[in-house]
């Protein structure tokens, strides 16, 4: 297993300044310029840099500031695609989940139990069909060579087991449940940052707050949003990985964005489940709403999958109909219904699906596509899903190497571990190890030098000043919002956001305020 060390993957403002100066200096073009700092963009940057290519990535805001930080935080094994008989995508999902959980980021993606309660509203036929689907998913797991010690076989469980794993489940008419396993991300934004830091350790230059303004054959013009200065990067190849904004950089790309909405409730309001609860959407076999426990005392309820038209906001939330839908579906399997007052936060993301015939977003293929613009020669990558980001990046870099006749080594990312992977030092706090892996030792060192940095920023928020300093000095946090919203996720809880921002300013006074006015959706 190849790995990257934390010391060589430190991203901060000083590194950004150096990378910017080097990226725009000299007459020799870089091999590849990547536009977009979400999963796909940083994945492309890592794949290319690991093959020995010179890479510059520009992102108009922060890493993972778009769709990549508004996901369901699940590494799916392809079960929903089996239900649609989309076997190629189901297989790809199972294989990529194995890469992620076994080698790439085992410290950031963990096994998660999922309970499907068998209530009177679930017919025996639907229960049998769902169970068969779980078994088919397990066959994919076995062929993908994911060990059962990591993701055990699915099984039928008793009513008592359902009540133990998900105490808030409705008791009336309950005849047990189906237990399955999948992958859960500790934090989607943290995974993106880890990929970017790993790419940087292989020589990629990562420039956030750098907005592409125009693309011409062989060059990208952009504005440094921190200074207002305009620059040009000369590049042999350009990849547009701007997600749902990709069509703003290429006239040949037509997208049909899909909106996925999520609600957040306190774990105590839903019985502190230790497993995700699965609620079927009536009339749509294979579609579910999940109540997924997070390790920080919150439970995510999601998700919707609806077509979206109009501009894409930078910060979107569920509308009233989406909130009502999510609560209605999950309440159907709960003993005590959740109310709108139980919701402490919410968010929504957008999937960059290719436009096709038909209107139902849930029926659009998640297969990714590579599109070459004949006017500016940019290669756009769209579609796909979080679990498959690595494969998307591999395909994009293969095309870049071929089209640009570049000298590059083979793809290494199936066995290239991200920063933080490995065996942590003994004696470190469980909280730090769960979020940082082997980097927990670096975080803890801040507190060893200054014990005040070990203290939580506020009761109920297990975030320390040491973690804030690590975000600034190693994870390219430039603004207060970068820490509040993406290096920690407590900014998702509306009542905690301002307290957290005050603490961030205290421990990192060098951070600037967000240079943008956030749009609310």
Low-pLDDT windows of residues: 1-7, 357-364, 517-521
Radius of gyration: 22 Å
How many beta-strand runs?
A: 20
**Secondary structure tally, helices:** 14
How big a fraction of the residues is strand? 15-25%
Can you give the helix content as a percent range?
25-40%
User: What is the approximate shape?
Assistant: globular
User: Quick check: average pLDDT?
Assistant: 92
Cα end-to-end separation: 43 Å
Q: What's the main sheet like? A: 10 strands, mixed
> What structural class should be given to the helix and strand makeup?
alpha+beta
Give a description of the structure:
The longest helix is centred in the first third of the chain and has 20 residues. Strand 9 and strand 10 form a beta hairpin. Helix content is 31%, strand content 21%. Strands 3, 4, 5, 6, 11, 12, 13, 14, 15 and 16 form a ten-stranded mixed sheet that branches. By secondary structure, it is of the alpha+beta class. The relative contact order is 0.17. It is built from 14 helices and 20 strands.
């Amino acid at each position: 297993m190849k790995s990257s060390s934390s010391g060589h993957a430190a991203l901060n403002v000083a590194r950004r300044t150096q990378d910017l100066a080097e990226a725009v200096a000299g007459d020799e073009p870089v091999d590849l310029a990547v536009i977009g700092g979400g999963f796909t963009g940083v994945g492309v940057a890592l794949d290319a840099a690991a093959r020995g290519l010179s890479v510059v990535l520009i992102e108009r805001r922060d890493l993972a500031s778009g769709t990549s930080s508004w996901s369901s935080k699940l590494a799916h094994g392809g079960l929903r695609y089996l239900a649609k008989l989309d076997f190629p995508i189901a297989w790809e999902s199972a294989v990529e989940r194995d890469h992620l959980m076994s080698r790439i980021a085992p410290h950031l993606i963990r096994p998660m139990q999922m309970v499907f309660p068998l209530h009177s509203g679930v017919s025996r036929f639907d229960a049998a069909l769902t169970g068969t689907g779980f078994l088919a998913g397990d066959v994919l797991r076995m062929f993908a060579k994911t060990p059962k010690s990591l993701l055990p076989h699915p099984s039928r469980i008793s009513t008592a087991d359902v009540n133990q794993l998900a105490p808030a489940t409705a008791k009336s008419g309950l005849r047990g449940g189906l237990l399955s396993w999948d992958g859960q991300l500790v934090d989607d934004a943290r995974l993106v940052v880890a990929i970017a830091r790993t790419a940087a350790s292989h020589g990629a230059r990562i420039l956030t707050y750098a907005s592409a303004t125009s693309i011409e054959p062989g060059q990208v013009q952009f504005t440094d949003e921190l200074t207002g200065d305009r620059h040009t990067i000369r590049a042999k190849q350009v990849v547009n990985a701007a997600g749902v904004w990709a069509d703003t950089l290429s006239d040949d790309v037509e997208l049909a964005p899909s909106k996925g909405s999520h609600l957040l409730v306190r774990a105590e309001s839903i019985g502190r489940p230790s497993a995700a609860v699965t609620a079927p959407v009536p009339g749509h076999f294979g579609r579910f709403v999940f109540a997924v426990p997070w390790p920080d005392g919150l439970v995510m309820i999601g998700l919707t999958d609806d077509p979206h038209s109009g501009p894409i906001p930078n910060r979107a939330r569920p509308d009233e109909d989406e909130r009502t839908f999510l609560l209605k579906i999950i309440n159907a399997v709960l003993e005590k219904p959740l109310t709108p007052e139980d919701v402490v936060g919410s968010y929504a993301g957008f999937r960059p699906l290719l436009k096709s015939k038909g209107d139902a977003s849930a029926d659009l293929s998640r297969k990714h596509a590579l599109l070459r613009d004949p006017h500016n020669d940019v290669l756009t990558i769209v579609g796909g899903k979080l679990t498959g980001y690595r494969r998307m990046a591999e395909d994009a870099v293969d095309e870049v190497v071929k089209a640009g006749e570049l000298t590059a080594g083979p793809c290494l990312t199936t066995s290239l571990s991200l920063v933080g992977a490995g065996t942590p030092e003994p004696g470190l706090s469980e909280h730090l190890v769960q979020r940082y892996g082997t980097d927990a030792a670096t975080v803890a060192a801040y507190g060893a030098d200054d014990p005040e940095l070990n203290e939580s920023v506020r009761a109920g928020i297990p975030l320390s000043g040491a973690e804030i300093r690590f975000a600034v000095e190693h994870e390219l946090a430039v603004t207060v919002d970068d820490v509040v919203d993406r290096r920690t996720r407590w900014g998702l809880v509306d009542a905690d956001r301002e307290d957290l921002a005050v603490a961030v300013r205290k421990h990192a006074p060098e951070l600037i305020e967000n240079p943008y006015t956030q749009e609310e959706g």
